[in-house]
Amino acid sequence: xxxxxxxxxxxxxxxxxxxxxxxxxxxxxxxxxxxxxxxxxxxxxxxxxxxxxxxxxxxxxxxxxxxxxxxxxxxxxxxxxxxxxxxxxxxxxxxxxxxxxxxxxxxxxxxxxxxxxxxxxxxxxxxxxxxxxxxxxxxxxxxxxxxxxxxxxxxxxxxxxxxxxxxxxxxxxxxxxxxxxxxxxxxxxxxxxxxx
Amino acid sequence: xxxxxxxxxxxxxxxxxxxxxxxxxxxxxxxxxxxxxxxxxxxxxxxxxxxxxxxxxxxxxxxxxxxxxxxxxxxxxxxxxxxxxxxxxxxxxxxxxxxxxxxxxxxxxxxxxxxxxxxxxxxxxxxxxxxxxxxxxxxxxxxxxxxxxxxxxxxxxxxxxxxxxxxxxxxxxxxxxxxxxxxxxxxxxxxxxxxx
DNA sequence: ACCTGCATGTAATTAGTTACATGATTTT
DNA sequence: AAAATCATGTAACTAATTACATGCAGGT
Lengths: 196, 196
What we know:
The structure is a homodimer. Chain A is of the alpha+beta class and about 200 residues long. Chain A is built from 7 helices and 4 strands, in the order αβααββαβααα.
């Protein structure tokens, strides 16, 4: 009885916090899940249509001035049950897909300046995500755990990459013999901002 | 000029280390990329067939006793050029897809024992991946960087989750007011092994 | 004048997973 | 006796991305 947390299930999940439109749900995804789950309109709208057809949600159309009606969805009892069952049956997988690490695996085939640019870009993006994560006030304890997890892991990742980038810039030698990069302190000279 | 590191590109990458069969490539993926890139036979074999048709690789069939011929692939110059171009044009993205964090976001809807089981399972899996990462000797500096990154990040993740699980087991109160979990030391009572 | 936010959706495509299909040899 | 390793592949399916299509209101 293994279930998957696909976009449909996540929509049900968001609706447990109260009624919402597809647009609202997308916003919620961005604000709350963006560092570990992505979904766009192209998956959310069809998901809601299917959930409606299956009786997991109901809609109410709210007329809007000069734009399409807001379609506000509510969870039905069946929908709530279904979501709880999904939660109970979903294995807690955690997957990373990193083109960054692939690039680094083949670092020897990259021009040196490209290598530096790749590292800078990654650090910048980690910083951006961290910034976004700091500013989020978490209502429920679950979101609190997730934000804490994100901060912890992203900081570790950021510091590791930044330290390596620092050593690279310091001396283009193959890197000193020590295995694990020393924790963050490792000289980190100023970097140029990489284009956004 | 943005490129994607899909399975086809990764196959070319693996072949820069020397000729290999589809089977060998799968093994290489598992040993080296498994914590940040997954691919099965169902994507590797078709990828190799396409690369062959496109002239990026050549094959040599090596007869085998009582099993299908080993088809050993070699990179052509065109294939190598193509891979280098792909590396140069790929944005260093790094994405996480975590059903674990989704589960935790909705922790309030989970039965307490299920919550504990989820946390245990995650810690066990982080430990398993870490074990795999420790035992890998890395030939090239790129792989060294990737292994170090994996160890650093996975340890941070593991410790964060383990500490939280420890606090949960200690007292089922909503969790003390401090924000970030104290680094690893936080009481971590013995856990039962979760079934594999 | 342009961009961002609000608000909905569809269609085509891409990419990947899962299950199937076969079968000898070696290790536990 | 069973499981894992070696070795290839195909077909059906699932899921999600990307681009398209429309259009007003408000801020810079």
